[in-house]
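Appendix C: a fully annotated inverse folding record. The material below is reproduced so that readers can follow the format used throughout the book. The structure is listed first as tokens, followed by the designed sequence.
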């Protein structure tokens, strides 16, 4: 097969497609168009190990430079794709050059949602945490004694708060919802992480509404103003208020879109010669259109796309997993807790380990494991096997999960 494959994007999904194409003996030309000037890199560690200094840039890279050469993959950096010409099967890049494709893969990811300029979102020292540039800027600015306000109590915001606290900054987290992790976790998991942050001196304010960011008079932030008039001083502000899929190319090409680029179980868009994978996509999962924002999905969906480009016609059946590192707490999540109505708290074997099991009716659908790697590994296997873990079983501390797999 000698078709030319063009991949737009430069993170987990893009590299998964290219890597798996070569592993399946695809010998045609592969070109990756990446707007960033850095070798494709992992994003999750940016707010964890990289920011803490525990991971170097070399380790952050998904593949070393020689890998692209050895695998005959043309990596084009610092180049933005600007349009798709579906009628002629050409990708336009900035400057107007056209690149022909036989199959096109959109692995364009997502961008951090920013605060409106009208309330101070564009002031200096107001940052997001999404890419390497964001992380490097924040690492330079985070110094002991400075005041940091984190807007948004999701995992990205809490991870940034943890790293800042460890560096000696005074940290306040603001969450508009009644509690942190409102969209992604049960109250029991939120309680665990709230207590963890407060133990490390972080102030967690929930059910508070940001009115605007205070200007210091020189175009930089000086703090935040809440709707009740409360002023909280800040030298640095990080916003972690969600992401927006980078689907401008798809919209411009009139591909089917919604909360992302809509793909079928094979990774195909509404154009049979254009695939998409990773954070930018909306895919069918358990009968519902779903956007899975995770490394697992980017990697696995990318592998399926590669297989199908190579002619496999293989459907994707996601097995979601996620993780978060905060202080000495490692959270591992298996499954998707959408639609849960019951939570079982189950203590782990190690001191301080605990897991929260999610059920929809009597169906086990997901688990949050805190410093409980053994339970995570077993639960992940149970979810993949569709073994019937009941509420009664999970609630019984003497019940051995492994028996469901024997």
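Designed amino acids, in order:
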């Amino acid at each position: 097969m000698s078709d030319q494959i063009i991949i737009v994007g430069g993170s987990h999904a893009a590299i998964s497609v290219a890597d798996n194409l070569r592993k399946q003996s695809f010998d045609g030309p592969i070109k990756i168009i990446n707007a960033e000037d850095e070798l494709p890199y992992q994003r999750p560690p940016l707010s964890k190990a990289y920011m803490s200094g525990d991971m170097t840039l070399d380790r952050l890279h998904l593949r070393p430079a020689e890998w692209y050469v050895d695998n005959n993959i043309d990596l084009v950096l610092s180049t933005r794709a600007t349009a798709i010409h579906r009628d002629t099967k050409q990708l336009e890049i900035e400057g107007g050059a056209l690149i022909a494709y036989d199959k096109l893969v959109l692995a364009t990811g997502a961008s951090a949602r920013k605060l409106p300029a009208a309330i101070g979102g564009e002031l200096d020292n107001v940052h997001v945490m999404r890419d390497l540039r964001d992380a490097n800027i924040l690492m330079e600015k985070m110094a002991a004694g400075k005041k940091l306000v984190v807007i948004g109590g999701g995992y990205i915001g809490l991870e940034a708060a943890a790293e800042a606290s460890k560096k000696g900054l005074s940290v306040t987290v603001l969450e508009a919802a009644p509690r942190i992790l409102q969209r992604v976790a049960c109250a029991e998991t939120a309680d665990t992480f709230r207590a963890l942050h407060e133990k490390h001196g972080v102030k967690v304010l929930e059910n508070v509404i940001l009115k605007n960011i205070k200007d210091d008079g020189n175009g930089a932030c000086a703090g935040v103003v809440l709707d009740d008039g409360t002023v909280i001083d800040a030298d640095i502000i990080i916003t972690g208020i969600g992401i927006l899929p980078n689907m401008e190319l798809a919209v411009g090409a009139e591909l089917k879109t919604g909360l992302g680029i809509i793909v079928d179980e094979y990774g195909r868009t509404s154009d049979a010669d254009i695939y998409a994978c990773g954070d930018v996509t909306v895919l069918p999962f358990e009968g519902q259109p779903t956007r899975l924002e995770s490394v697992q999905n980017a990697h696995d969906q990318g592998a399926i796309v590669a297989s199908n480009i190579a002619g496999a016609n293989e459907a994707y059946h996601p097995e979601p997993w996620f993780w978060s590192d905060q202080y000495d707490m490692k959270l591992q999540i298996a499954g998707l807790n959408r639609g849960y109505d019951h939570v079982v708290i189950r203590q782990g074997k190690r001191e301080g380990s605990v897991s929260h099991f999610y059920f929809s009716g009597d169906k086990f659908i997901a688990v949050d494991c805190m410093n409980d790697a053994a339970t995570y590994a077993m639960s992940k296997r149970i979810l993949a096997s569709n073994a019937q873990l009941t509420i009664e079983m999970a609630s019984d501390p003497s019940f051995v999960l492994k028996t469901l797999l024997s």
